Amino acid sequence: MTDSAKLINDMGRNARSAFSRLTGVSDSQKSAALTAAARHLRASQDTIIAANQRDMDSARERGLSDSMLDRLMIDADRLESIASAVDDVAVLPDPVGQLIDRTERPNGLVMERIRVPLGVIGIIYESRPNVTADAAALALRSGNAVILRGGSEAIQSNGAIYDAMVAGVVEAGLPADAIQLVQTTDRAAVGAMLKASGLIDIIIPRGGKSLVKRVQDEARVPVLAHLDGICHTYIAKDADPEKALAIAVNAKMRRTGICGAMETLLIDQDYPAPGPLVRALLEAGCEVRGDDSVLELDERIVSAEAADWDTEYLAPILSVKMVNGADEALAHIASHGSHHTDVIVTEDSEMAERFILRADSAIVMHNASSQFADGGQFGLGAEIGISTGRLHARGPVALEGLTTYKWVVRGTGQTRP
Amino acid sequence: MTDSAKLINDMGRNARSAFSRLTGVSDSQKSAALTAAARHLRASQDTIIAANQRDMDSARERGLSDSMLDRLMIDADRLESIASAVDDVAVLPDPVGQLIDRTERPNGLVMERIRVPLGVIGIIYESRPNVTADAAALALRSGNAVILRGGSEAIQSNGAIYDAMVAGVVEAGLPADAIQLVQTTDRAAVGAMLKASGLIDIIIPRGGKSLVKRVQDEARVPVLAHLDGICHTYIAKDADPEKALAIAVNAKMRRTGICGAMETLLIDQDYPAPGPLVRALLEAGCEVRGDDSVLELDERIVSAEAADWDTEYLAPILSVKMVNGADEALAHIASHGSHHTDVIVTEDSEMAERFILRADSAIVMHNASSQFADGGQFGLGAEIGISTGRLHARGPVALEGLTTYKWVVRGTGQTRP
Asked: Which of A121, A183, B170, B292 shows the smallest number of beta carbons within 10 Å?
């Protein structure tokens, strides 16, 4: 066994033992641990900012880009946001113990399904040190033990935030190993986590596409993630032009770098006002890449190449295609989509229901901007990630997605004939 | 690409296309397909029994054991059972389209979760040809496409049953590729199924431990299964002796070869009547392997070895251990159990709740026989398997376990600020 494999093996065993101890812990104790952790985060402001300064200094030496430096940076305001996010999770309802369903059988046996934690969650993330607090809080709130592995560029910041979180956990009488941080920059530790079946129950990668792809390719442990967010908006022939315009501009331009941003606009060939729609996007500063029929709408539109239909730009660039009816829109989405979020804009409710039924996406929207694809916007209180997988949890994943269930059978001495 | 990989690739693409067409199919059409399939099974009695005879002849030539031959054999009665099981699935409630939950946000957006089929299910099974009809029926009832790969010893029987099933599917106007059968005995086809990520969404192995282990080790596609059923029954000090005796004998001896059969009996050292309990088991024909304290109870008891605590006998053999309280019972189960079904027998309801909370098993029972671990007994109408995994579906898995959900967001033109 290599050093990394041994490290992860030991951490995994400690996590399982902590998970087992967490099973007996009350809702209020988990909540108190997070409130205490938030307090320790605020009390450790100087330590955390000083640790972050060391990370920032090495990052500048290594020539990291300004946007990377911005994602890494922690000041007093950002630390307060981190701490108050932990406070927010502390007051979310605890999903553990919730009764999912209950049936009584003719022989008097009562079958219940109740929510229980998933077990041990591995989080592999890059840059933003807030994930250390954020992911640990969500995992612990739902009764799971967690093994965190952040990016090497944030190792000092993550360590300082982690110390504050653990102080809260211990203060509330929970096992310290409920939250563990992999404190080595050896990349082999990530490989060991991905192969730790039986010790880690699920891996959640948080970061860029190359990280997610590596995790999905190498993992032997189940992965909860999305690789791409190639979100489509289909403007049907009966769309309200005002709604269509507002939704399209918002879905593309509100923030272009998030996974719920629209990347392809499908306009029905019978939609009466394609020109104003495309011009509003151009005027909002969006580059528009169109097929031949779209090119005719405005001379600023450039010609789309085949690869455009499969590209997640995460930038003010949009591919636009004219389609003949909802079926052609659905066929395009089936070929080029990423099962993340797809939208229909129409006043024809029958067509909307058909689109909702047929679109094979984690999130299907009618007359709304795809930028709502976010756990907070869904009312989930927080979000550990968005899943485009089909199993276990889909779309925005929050506390409930970090639980599973057990069957409880209540009898009075029944034996099976 | 090898021939097998190409075969599975083609079947996978056809299955995905059939799955997409199934999305628009109504409940009554799926139900009609199964009713028609059951009718075709009955009408094909001569063909199916003749095909089965050819399998039986080759199996005898190859020297298969009597129990294997019995599992393979189809006569008129067994075919009628197969057909009526398909009829039963036809009338089960369709989970697809069911509303899981619904919330309205302050901005007027309505967030719904509705059940949708999983997608393409791969079933890999051995011997019993009824699985061809059974698994296909459950997969189709829940709107999934299915790729079936049975054992080589049943290839003629499976082919004949499959033909009847497809005839029903086509008669009801559903795509023929909704059900496909791998009609080659090349074992590489199994390997290709296990690696068909993106084409097959989940693999369900049905068969012996070596099959399940191979599938779990090699699969890159998620697997729904259980490897072992090392089920425990803990007789607490406050157990009712009459219930304890009836439950223990039933849990072990009703049928010894099923995964819900008890394999280890844990008796509290303060339970007042261990002697009658163990003697009832001995007298029912069970071999008892005990630890030192158990050995004193009866001279017919043999000494348990370390391996006994980790053994799924699937035979009239039982390991019996004296434990000091529920915590020691739980610790033993945590070390030696398989997260399948574990039982506490006690009249102390506080202790029962604590055991239910702490036992990390897919099914936890209080005062009932572990032999109830079966989808039919749980009122699920049927069962595609029992899962000891933690993700997606646990315990008995029926139609609901073959579904996932999608988020539907209903708006009136909302954009995100």
From this structure: B292
Which residues, numbered 140 to 199 in chain B, qualify as contacts with chain A under a Cβ-Cβ cut-off of 8 Å?
none
Q: Is any Cβ of chain B less than 8 angstroms from the Cβ of A101? A: no
Instruction: Catalogue the E-assigned strands of B21-151.
Output: 99-104, 110-117, 120-125, 145-149
Instruction: Please check whether residue A64 is in contact with residue A126, taking contact to mean a CB–CB distance below 8 angstroms.
Output: no
**What number is the average pLDDT over the span B155-183?**
97
Is a pLDDT exceeding 80 seen at residue B1?
no
* CATH domain B231-377 topology: Aldehyde Dehydrogenase; Chain A, domain 2 (3.40.309)
Per the CB < 8 A criterion, the answer to whether A22 and A119 are in contact is no
Nearest residue to A404 via CA among A11, A23, A12: A23
What stretch(es) of chain B map to CATH 3.40.605.10? 3-224+396-408
CA distance A393 to A387: 7
Q: Is B416 on the interface with A (CB under 8 A)?
A: yes
Taking the CA atoms of residue B166, residue B167, residue B173 and residue B174 in that order, the dihedral angle to the nearest 10 degrees is: 0
Q: Which residue has the tokens 């024809």?
A: A348
Q: Within 10 Å of residue A200's Cβ, how many Cβ atoms?
A: 27
Is 0.80 surpassed by the pTM of this model? yes
Q: How high is the pLDDT of residue A381?
A: 85
User: What is the pLDDT, as a whole number, of residue A235?
Assistant: 98
Residues B61, B410: Cα–Cα separation, whole Å: 63
Span A172-228, pLDDT tens digits: 999 999 999 999 888 899 999 999 999 999 999 998 899 999 999 999 999 999 989
Outline which parts of chain B fall under CATH 3.40.309.10. Answer: 231-377
* pLDDT, chain B, mean: 96
User: d(Cα B219, Cα A289) in Å, to the nearest integer?
Assistant: 41
Q: Average pLDDT, whole number, for chain A?
A: 96
Give B255-303 as a DSSP string.
Answer: -TTSTTSEEEEEEETT-S-HHHHHHHHHHTT-EEEE-HHHHTT-TTPEE
Instruction: Tell me the ipTM for this assembly.
Output: 0.94
Task: Assess whether pLDDT exceeds 90 at residue A27.
Answer: yes
- Averaged pLDDT, A106-124: 97
Length of chain B: 417
| Distance, CA of B220 to CA of B225 (rounded, Å) | 14
- Write the pLDDT tens digit of every residue in B348-391: 999 999 999 999 999 999 999 999 999 999 999 889 999 999 99
Look at the domain A3-224+395-409 and name its fold. Aldehyde Dehydrogenase; Chain A, domain 1 (3.40.605)
State how far Cα A261 lies from the chain centre: 14
Among candidates B113, B195, B147, which has minimal Cα distance to B410? B113
Residues of B in contact with A222 (CB under 8 A): 222, 391
In A59-98, the residues whose Cβ lies within 8 Å of chain B are none
Q: At which residue do the structure tokens 């009488």 appear?
A: A173
The continuous run of DSSP H or E covering B332 comes out as: helix B325-336
CA of B364 vs chain A CAs: smallest distance (Å):
5
Substitution target in B252, B390, B405, B412 with the highest count of A β-carbons within 10 Å is B390
Q: For residue B269, how many other CB atoms are within 10 A of its CB?
A: 12
Q: Where in chain A is the domain with CATH 3.40.605.10?
A: 3-224+395-409
Residue with tokens 């008892």: B288
CB contact under 8 Å between B118 and A391, yes or no, is yes
Question: According to the model, what pLDDT value does residue A382 have?
Answer: 82
**Would you state the pLDDT for residue B53?**
98
pLDDT digits (tens, 9 = 90+) for B81-139: 999 999 999 999 999 999 999 999 999 999 999 999 999 999 999 878 999 999 999 99
